[in-house]
Amino acid sequence: MASDTPDEPVPVTADVAFGRAALLPDIDRPRAWLLTLDGSPQSYVDLDEPAYVEFEYARRLAHVLDLAAPAAAPLAVLHLGGGAMTLPRYVAATRPGSPQRVVEADGPLVDLVTARLPLPPAEPIAVEVADARAGLAARPAGSADAVVADVFGGALIPAHLTSVEFVRDAARVLRPGGVYAANLSDGGALAFLRGQVATARAVFAHVCLVTEEDHLTGERFANAVLVASDAPLPLERLSERAAADPYPAVVVAGGELVAFTGDAAVVTDATAVGSPAPPRGVFGVG
Length: 286
What we know:
Strand order of the largest sheet: 7-6-5-8-9-11-10-12
Largest sheet: 8 strands, mixed
Structural class: alpha/beta
CATH topology: Rossmann fold
Number of strands: 12
Strand content: 25-35%
CATH superfamily: Vaccinia Virus protein VP39
Helix content: 25-40%
Order of helices and strands: EEEEHEHEHEHEHEHEHEHEH
Number of domains: 1
Radius of gyration: 18 Å
């Protein structure tokens, strides 16, 4: 029988609202856990070292948050999508006292994660069980320094979180100079990713993509982090951080990003579709 504490490296599985969740211990890190949903990796958390970020896309999101304000300064962050709450833990560790809100649609998953992998009790992290778009709509204007969208139903981004109406609402919630960051996935001709860039550029004055070069050529299906703001982005510092990661990435902005986007249309609620399904075996999907 599994222990009620996360200290023993015993796998835990449970049926949650959107599938079968598993918490799998990392044998190389005593209190580190991988969360999967229907076999697809969702989050990685090290309870002893919450500033350690395993997944490359999450590292890139962490870089964005690191550069959103002076080091250690509190940052008001709205996280759309929770999983095992890697980034809320990261912000709490690197910017103590930051007011954070996590919106996660899967209530049983929230219960599993918070019971087995407790959040730091002294930190102001509020967790709301709600659809990401509904949770975003309920937030006051100008209430966040950063909005992070990392919402996947299994391995797919829901269509209603890809439209210009959704991105405009994220912009409404941001304070002047605030940053919007989204974890996106695509492959092949990258039509979905190009549409997401066109959509963000219709709302924000400054947009960039952070991803690996072979992803941009369509050689493989992968994640890309989209970053947007009404203020200039710290492109040079973000590029330095992304290039120094174990799996180096590039930052695409300016004319290069315009060329990448091409004639992709802005996505609306009427035309939105979810992200494409990853090929068999990618992201652990069978």
